[in-house]
Design goal:
heterodimer; A: 103 residues; mainly beta; Archaeosine Trna-guanine Transglycosylase, Chain: A, domain 4; 9 strands; B: alpha/beta; four-stranded parallel sheet; 34% helix
C-alpha cells in the first residue's frame, strides 16, 4: 500500500463492496485511486466531498434502501441516494439491526 | 495443520500452566475488600482482587459470581490463593476456598467470624502470604506446549483501521494457536450483532450454532426492549469519529480477530470453556466484567486490539479506571497510523500495515512473538505502567438487585 503519487488512495476490502476505505484524506473533486487488498489498482473515482482518512467513499451509486456492502457483507442501508464518490457515513446510512427504526 | 513450539510457563499441580506467579487475595464479597487490601499491602507478588459482589443479588447472579470467584482462584497465573471474608458474606469464603483447593495449589481462607476479629484476619492473612512468598520453593518455568495456552481476544477504541490491521493480524495468530492445539476466547456479545451469521457457519455442531444465535438474539432483544435508540452508544462516538457507521460494520470488523477456524463452544460469564479450541464467552462489552470473566475462564493473557483516536491516547487499559489487572497480562496492539505518536503505549504497532511498511503476515508474526515472550515472563507495557490506585472490579449483574 505504498503511496506512489500524491493521489489519495482507497482500499476496496471485497470485490462485492460498494464502498472503499480511504487510506488518505480526500479533497472534494480530487481523483481517488481504488486499490484491492493486494495493492492492485482497480481504477479511479472522483471524491464528492472532503473526506477524512479511513472513512468510507462510495464506489458507485447506491439507491435509497440499498445495502451498503463492506467486507462483502451488509453493514446497513442507504437512508437516501448516495452518489459515487460521496462520503458514506451516519448521515446517509442506517443500521438494519439497531437503528431504532427503518430507512 | 499442526505447528510445534513451546513457551516457558509454570506448571501447576492440576496440569494448567501459569505465565505469572501471583499470590491472589480474593474477598468473598465487597465488605471484605479492605481485608484483602490490608493483607496484601507491601507483599510484592500479592494481588488483592477487589470486586463489587454485594449481598443484594439473587440466585442466578450469586451463582455466576461464585463460579467467577472460584474460577479466578483456579486461574493458573495464581500460584496460591487467600480467600478472605466476614463470615456473613452471601458467598462462603470457606466453600470457595475448598473448591479452589481442588487444584492442589496452596489455598487458605480466613474470616472475621473464624478468626474472632478484623485485625486477626489481617495478621494471619499477612503471615500466610509472607510464608507463601518466602518459605515455599519458587516454581520454575518449564517448556510447555502451545496447547496449554488460553488467549483472550478483544478490540476497543475501534475505528476503520482496526479491521484492516490489528484485527486481521490477531485473527491469523488465533488460527495459528488453534492449529497448534491451543485455545482462544472471544466475547462482547453485543458486538457480534450483524456478524453472527459468519460465526454460526463456523460452529462445530448444530447445538453450538443455535447457541451463538441464541446469545446474540438475546442481547439484541434486550436492547430493543428498552426502546432506546442505541446509536451513539453502539457504535460509540469514538467509533463514529473513526469512520465506523453502524454496529454491523463494527461487528464485522471485530470478528476478524477471531480468525477463521471452527468455534468449539459457547459459555456464560463466570463459566469455563469445555475442551480446547475457539470459544465464545457470553458477556457485554464492558472491560472490567470481561477481564474477570476471561481470567475466571482460565485465560492466561489478553490481546487487546485498539483502533485509534482519543482511546489510543489513554496510556492505561481502555475501559478501566485506575488499576492494572495482573492476573491477566494484556498485550495492546495499535492500528491507526494517525496515532503513531501514542505507539509508546502499545506492545505491538500494527499501523505499519496501513502505511504499507509491513504486511499483515509480518505484523501477525510480531503479535505471535510478543505472546510467546509475554508468556515466558516478559512484561507488557501495562505491567510496567504504574497504576495510581487499586481498581474495584465490576461483577456482571443481570439483575434484579434487591
Amino acid at each position: 500500500m505504498a503511496r506512489m503519487e500524491k493521489m489519495a488512495r482507497a482500499l476496496v476490502l471485497h470485490e462485492e463492496d460498494n464502498v472503499a476505505v480511504l487510506l488518505d484524506p480526500a479533497v472534494d473533486g480530487e481523483s481517488v485511486t481504488l486499490l484491492d487488498s493486494a495493492d492492485g489498482a482497480l481504477g479511479n473515482i472522483q471524491a464528492g466531498a472532503d473526506i477524512e482518512s479511513f472513512h468510507k467513499i462510495g464506489t458507485r451509486e447506491i439507491a435509497q434502501g440499498e445495502p451498503i456492502v463492506k467486507f462483502g457483507e451488509a453493514i446497513g442501508r442507504a437512508s437516501h441516494l448516495i452518489r459515487a464518490g460521496e462520503h458514506v457515513h451516519v448521515h446517509n446510512v442506517v443500521s438494519a439491526r439497531l437503528s431504532g427504526g427503518g430507512v | 495443520m499442526t505447528q510445534g513450539g513451546t513457551f516457558a510457563g509454570f506448571r501447576r499441580p492440576d496440569g494448567q500452566v501459569g505465565i505469572r506467579n501471583l499470590l491472589l487475595v480474593l474477598p468473598a464479597g465487597q465488605c471484605a475488600n479492605e481485608l484483602a487490601l490490608r493483607c496484601a499491602e507491601g507483599i510484592g507478588s500479592a494481588f488483592p482482587l477487589l470486586h463489587t459482589q454485594p449481598c443484594a443479588h439473587l440466585g442466578a447472579d450469586n451463582e455466576a459470581a461464585r463460579e467467577c470467584l472460584v474460577g479466578l482462584g483456579l486461574n493458573p497465573n495464581a500460584a496460591a490463593v487467600l480467600v478472605v471474608g466476614i463470615g456473613c458474606d452471601s458467598l462462603s469464603a470457606q466453600g470457595m476456598a475448598e473448591e479452589i483447593a481442588g487444584s492442589r495449589k496452596p489455598v487458605e481462607w480466613l474470616t472475621v467470624e473464624s478468626c474472632g476479629d478484623w485485625a486477626s484476619v489481617i495478621e494471619r492473612g499477612r503471615a500466610w502470604l509472607e510464608r507463601q512468598e518466602s518459605d515455599t520453593t519458587p516454581p520454575c518455568r518449564e517448556d510447555c506446549a502451545l496447547s496449554d495456552l488460553v488467549l483472550a481476544i478483544k478490540c476497543g477504541g475501534s475505528d476503520a483501521t482496526s479491521a484492516v490491521a490489528g484485527n486481521p493480524a490477531i485473527g491469523r495468530v488465533v488460527d495459528r494457536l488453534i492449529d497448534a492445539g491451543g485455545s482462544a476466547i472471544f466475547s462482547e456479545t453485543t458486538e457480534l450483532i450483524g456478524a453472527e451469521h459468519l460465526l454460526m457457519d463456523r460452529a462445530s455442531t448444530p447445538a453450538i450454532r443455535s447457541e451463538i444465535q441464541r446469545v446474540v438474539s438475546q442481547v439484541e432483544e434486550s436492547i430493543q426492549a428498552t426502546g432506546v435508540d442505541p446509536r451513539g452508544t453502539q457504535p460509540t462516538p469514538g467509533n463514529i469519529a473513526g469512520g465506523l457507521t453502524t454496529l454491523e460494520e463494527k461487528s464485522l470488523g471485530g470478528v476478524l480477530k477471531t480468525g477463521t477456524r471452527q468455534i468449539s463452544g459457547v459459555f456464560g460469564w463466570g463459566g469455563r470453556p469445555i475442551g480446547r479450541g475457539l470459544h465464545l464467552m457470553d458477556c457485554p462489552a464492558n472491560v472490567p466484567q470481561l477481564l474477570l470473566g476471561w481470567a475466571a475462564a482460565g485465560a492466561q493473557l489478553l490481546v487487546f486490539s485498539v483502533g485509534g483516536g482519543l482511546p489510543a491516547r489513554i496510556p492505561s487499559l481502555i475501559g478501566t479506571n485506575v488499576g492494572g489487572f495482573p492476573l491477566l497480562p494484556v498485550i495492546k496492539v495499535l492500528s491507526n497510523p494517525n496515532d503513531g505518536d501514542a505507539a509508546a503505549y502499545f506492545d505491538v504497532n500494527a499501523s505499519t500495515v496501513l502505511e504499507g511498511k509491513q504486511s499483515l503476515k509480518d505484523v501477525a508474526e510480531s503479535v505471535w512473538n510478543r505472546i510467546i515472550a509475554t508468556a515466558a515472563g516478559r512484561h507488557t507495557y501495562l505491567e510496567e505502567y504504574p497504576a495510581p490506585a487499586t481498581q474495584v472490579w465490576e461483577m456482571l449483574v443481570r439483575g434484579p438487585t434487591i
